[in-house]
Specification:
Radius of gyration: 50 Å
Number of strands: 18
Largest sheet: 6 strands, antiparallel
Helix content: 55-70%
Strand content: 15-25%
Structural class: alpha+beta
Number of helices: 14
């Protein structure tokens, strides 16, 4: 992977050197042309049509007049002289820079005039100007060149060097200047626009890939800023101030989105930093739209911090890339390193630390960013394909697991179907008991109650009623729906036993807590009711109690049942207390998966307790 990285970076550098070499071979021989650097300059007002008679000062080209006249907005005339030995052959004239709009006079004859020499100014500085001079404009001996330059002091107005000489030599220099000043910038603009649209469509199709959305926004805003270097007018804006204000805002917006893009590329989220940068960008855009005459002249207040932000973001990215073993990060860092180093030269020229020139080296190194992004996309695509392959393997594994689970589910469903069949048979049996045995039992009770009273008939009726109640308990528990809660199942038991205890002279107090939505299932519900029924039967038959308290409480997945009486009590450890009733209670507790407790003292009543889980 490292070898591939070196190859990619080396190819990018070779392409850059080849482009520069082609331009170097295009340089014309020095003897074929002459460069004029000595001139005179004089300020004038916007409407001046002729040069001033006085006020001329000697200057060296390239000249920025804002250093000499820092508050001067308007026109400065530049005057140059050269000696022409032969006026019979045409010569070429090249102005490499005139900021912002100009008109050119040679020996009193108008050679060229910009479309707009007053606000909104044309923008001559974006392209060199080439003229072919011949008789009668060209004179033998002394010739005078006058250049009327219109500009604003806030935007480095002035005039660059002038070249004269053989037309072929000047034409070659003109083509070279066009490459650096127009073609490179136009290529950068077109490439940024195409990349922006491409990545925007990619992001629209995959919204989760926010890194490509931010890169699309960065390149589109960068294309808007790059248009500044090829546009020859301020349209659609109304003034130079508005143009420069919007240009500075676009530069800040591009840098801000570039920072967010780098953070997303590193899979980092610095929300506060992003919020501050986006807020500053919004303020800059609003000022550019509504306060252009303030922001335009003070553009460096925004541009210089933006440049510092740009360098800081790239340096931080370089450091993060060195510490992170990811090939895409390191390739991107390598591809950003060269443009950053080259852009330092352009920055020093902009700040007038280095000699002035119009060769924007940063624009020609921008394709390296494309190389980095291309590799990053390929790397991420490869990683995505590996994830897809891994996903297919994982999917096959999940399918196998799902098949096993489906088999288990079908087996459980088969078991449930058998259980439902048994339940259905049980319900049919219960219905038969209810309709057959139950009806016969009720008929026998009714017949005995209508017969002459006798002790034998009374005992028989009582026994038959106990059988009837027990049958009801079985029928109620079996035939109730599965979603009936415990409170609903215990209500019939409470009703029947309250009447029975009251008839025996025993006061009963029932308390149910948390039984709503508590379900034990049919079999366990029947066991619980059998437990309570057996406990109450013992109270009724053996305790001699006058009061009985029954509590059933559900909390935190545990069920607590308690039957307390104030009867004669008993000794739980004695042999006589180990009868069938207590054994039945212990058996019911065991089937419920719970614990059975007895608290009894002779002469002080008894407490029977059951604690069991609800599931």
């Amino acid at each position: 992977m490292r070898a591939r990285l070196r190859v990619v970076v080396l190819l990018g550098l070779l392409a850059l050197l080849a482009a520069c070499a082609r331009q170097h071979r295009a340089d014309p021989p020095p003897a074929a042309m002459q460069t004029l650097k000595d001139a005179e300059a004089a300020p004038s007002d916007w409407n001046a049509t002729t040069p001033p008679a006085s006020g001329w000062v000697p200057v060296k080209l390239m000249d920025y007049w804002n250093k000499r006249w820092p508050q001067h907005d308007g026109v400065v005339w530049y005057r140059l002289h050269w000696n022409q030995t032969d006026a019979n052959a045409p010569i070429g004239l090249l102005l490499d820079y005139a900021c912002m709009a100009d008109e050119v006079w040679v020996n009193g004859s108008l050679v060229y005039r910009e479309p707009s020499l007053v606000e909104p100014l044309s923008r001559s500085w974006v392209a060199p100007q080439y003229f072919l001079l011949d008789r009668p404009v060209l004179h033998a001996g002394d010739n005078t060149l006058l250049v009327r330059v219109s500009g604003l002091a806030a935007y480095q107005p002035g005039l660059g060097t002038v070249n004269i000489g053989h037309p072929e030599a000047i034409q070659a220099r003109y083509q070279q200047a066009m490459f650096w000043q127009i073609h490179v910038h136009f290529l950068n603009f077109a490439m940024s626009a195409v990349l922006g649209v491409l990545f925007l469509m990619f992001w629209l199709l995959r919204r989760r890939e926010t890194v490509f959305g931010w890169y699309a926004l960065t390149t589109l805003l960068g294309a808007g800023y790059a248009w500044n270097f090829v546009a020859s007018s301020t349209w659609p804006l109304a003034s130079t101030d508005a143009w420069e204000a919007v240009n500075a805002a676009l530069f800040l917006a591009s840098a801000t989105t570039f920072c967010v893009f780098l953070l997303r590329f590193c899979e980092l989220r610095w929300r506060r930093t992003e919020a501050v940068l986006l807020l500053a960008t919004a303020v800059a855009l609003l000022m550019a739209l509504f306060m252009p005459h303030v922001m335009g002249p003070w553009r460096n207040v925004w541009i210089l911090p933006t440049v510092a932000l740009y360098y800081a973001a790239i340096l931080a990215f370089q450091w993060h890339a060195l510490r992170t073993p990811r090939a895409d990060l390191r390739v991107m860092a390598a591809c950003l390193a060269v443009p950053v180093l080259v852009s330092l030269i352009d920055l020093l020229v902009y700040l007038e630390v280095l000699p002035s020139g119009n060769n924007d080296l940063g624009a020609i190194t921008s394709p390296l960013t494309l190389i980095g992004m291309g590799f990053a996309i390929a790397w991420r695509f490869s990683a995505a394909m590996r994830r897809v392959e891994g996903f297919n393997i994982e999917l096959q594994r999940e399918v196998d697991v799902a098949t096993l689970r489906l088999s288990d589910t079908l087996s459980r469903e088969h078991t449930l179907a058998l259980a439902n069949t048994r339940i259905g048979e049980r319900l049919n049996l219960v219905r038969d008991l209810h309709d057959g045995f139950g009806g016969s039992l009720l008929g026998a009770i009714a017949t005995l109650e209508q017969s002459p009273p006798s002790p034998e008939a009374t005992r028989t009726v009582a026994t038959l009623k106990e059988l009837r109640d027990d049958l009801r308990l079985v029928i109620d528990t079996t035939t109730h729906e599965q979603d009936t809660d415990l409170a609903g199942l215990l209500a019939p038991l409470r009703h029947r036993w309250s009447q029975r205890l009251e008839a025996a002279g025993i006061d009963s107090f029932w308390r149910f807590d948390g039984l709503d939505d508590c379900r034990l299932g049919a079999a366990r519900s029947l066991d619980l009711q059998r437990f309570l029924q057996e406990a109450l039967t013992n109270v009724l038959k053996h305790s001699g109690a006058r009061r009985v308290d029954l509590l059933v409480r559900h909390a935190h997945g545990q069920l607590h049942a308690e039957v307390r009486d104030d009867g004669r009590g008993f000794d739980p450890s004695s042999h006589g207390s180990q009868g069938a009733g207590l054994a039945s209670l212990r058996s019911r507790a065991s089937r419920l998966g719970g614990l059975f407790h007895i608290q009894a003292v002779p002469g002080a009543g008894a407490v029977l307790q059951l604690d069991c889980p609800t599931s």
